[in-house]
From TrEMBL:
Residues 7-200 form the Ketoreductase domain. InterPro entries: KR_dom (IPR057326), NAD(P)-bd_dom_sf (IPR036291), Sc_DH/Rdtase_CS (IPR020904), SDR_fam (IPR002347). SUPFAM superfamilies: NAD(P)-binding Rossmann-fold domains (SSF51735). Belongs to the short-chain dehydrogenases/reductases (SDR) family. Keywords: Oxidoreductase. It comes from the Bacteria. This is Glucose 1-dehydrogenase.
Amino acid sequence: MTADGARVVLVTGAGAGIGRAVADRFAARGDRVALLDVDAGRVTAAAAELVGTGADAVAVTADVADPASVSAAFDEVVARLGRLDVCVSNVGVASSTPLLDMPDTEWRRVVGTNLDGTFHVLRAAARQMVRQGDGGRICCVTSFAARSARRGAGPYSASKAGLEMLARVACLELAEHRITVNLVSPGFVDHGRRAGMGEFVTPEYAAAIAATIPWGRTATTADVLPAIEFLCSAEAGYVTGALLSVDGGGSAGRFALPRNNG
């Protein structure tokens, strides 16, 4: 914590979507927040909005797929905010291309961002927290796609599955430093037809997913925030290596099958 008792929280993918909502939530708590995103204009505007509300927030531009960019970003955050207490690794991109048609560039774009990017962020966060010597919280956002295949989601599912095991390894290796590493697995959050994430999402696609969810609807960012907030809290000091699903029961079973009354 800083001298005034506030924590320094870094959120990746913070220019929009879940990442932006997470940054808003921690800023509202009184934490000092670093918003990291590859889109300079988007993240600068997001941070400026928070500063306008009286929050202590800074914008940092970086491409998580580039280790040098990530290293420079973390150095900038520590230089501007003094330390790092919490890191929420949220950045991710998706695709919907059959493997037979998958170009190498598309595979590398998704895996490079989701898996390599998580590694770069997790490593940089852990190194800073170990240097500080007083523990920390790391939370990675994963997906049900890591455990349930979808046609066209080869690189996305593979990268999220790899991300989950990476976090578990980190949990073991960082325990001695009292750094917790946990995972939150949201249900489908409709980002709309957003570049890099939801070009393939149509109203029909979202409705088809909603039909498989016992709760009867897809997730919102507000559904996901409490899980991330808890896993990054002081109260979760003995929780590490955990995966918390926030998906309305979507991962519990095959809800879309008709009821068998026989």
